[in-house]
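Entry 14. Structure prediction run on the chain below.
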Amino acid sequence: TQPPPTGGTQPPPTGGTQPPPTGGTPPPVDCSITPPPGMLPPPECVKTPANIQNSLSFGSWSSPIQTASVSVFGISNIAGRPIRAQVHVCGRNVNYTTKAADVAVDGSYPWSMDGVKVYPKMMTNINIDTVPGQPGFHIDINANNTNELPKPPLTIDVAGATLQQETNSYGFKDPCGNVPWNAGSLHEVTISGVVQGAKVDKTGKGHYNAEGAFGDFDIAANGSFSFVVSLWEGFNNLNINDSDWNSAHVQINTTNGVMKPRFVTMTTPVEGSSTKVTTESLVSGKIVAKPTGVSLAFIPKNVRANFNQCDNTGKCVMAQYTTEANAPNGAKPILLEGPDATTGDYTFSFLAPFNSGGSPAHIDVNTDGEIEGGGWAGHGMNVQVNDANSSKANYWKPKAPVYDAAAAQRMLEAAAKGK
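Output returned:
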């Protein structure tokens, strides 16, 4: 697939169900026409910043879309190509499918997808790709309608832990019903649950990522499962997937005093510095093989990074980086060098497009690789540059000896709003 064009000719939507066009010359698009209810504007009428190549947004928080579903249009460079839209909502993976036209229009093969459901109280994320999953396009939609959020596909229990308050002092409540757990001083807990899928026999293999510790677990025929995870001081974030890649996100707070080693650090810009970065600059750092308390070295195989910065007018710049040879979605290169002959550490670096205004910029770096002697792990860091309050607003557990509940709550609220 290719992102929707910014020029050319494609008919404006007129409402209802429309089959993919199969040929002919469509009339010119009049972008002054307001799309009917339930329809997104034609791609030609969507103005996107030049730096954003693979995403679109519709409906602001102050002016959300009011319809229950939307229709999505695009083009492919291959006739009859299968197209898939995946909507992840409250952990549930909902799929929609169509295919590109068999006859070209202006050299490309249009497609359309109708009845894609959008949900209130949260940003609906629609990921468009080609089956079986070539990199595609991402659409965020903020809606205000009466659609009922689907029930989470996995029910979870954490042995020995208690649920924290459902609503904080500001009235924030996760729209999907996720509530953090408090495990006190426990060093490990048993996670158990049930898959709520439609299949009678739910036998399969599930997967989890517990702060970079990856693992698999067996799912019984009745959908039940359990596994044990170790806990670190502060907030522990677990992502759990069933065999159909429905998911659950579990957050467990502890005060056990066991600090998670920090494998990824940033050298430049200097963390916490009061000096603002106001021009394109090198972001560099280190991937530590054996942080304090670690006996088996970590060997990075892949490194990925994201950069996001908005100026005071609301114009945002987003950039992705990777060490992968076949960069997905136009990601830029990361230079990875190492290992150091003495320590086994690696260094990474990439150029980031900081704006001249010195506004806050968010950077996250993630790596996955081998564990000495066998196994696979993932590690990462996130930091806010040009932000005097970053030490409070950006919670990074290995640097925080005391759990900052307010900071964690702010991160939860931002995630729920799609920011």
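The first strand starts at residue 55 and ends at 58.
Filed with the rest of this week's runs.
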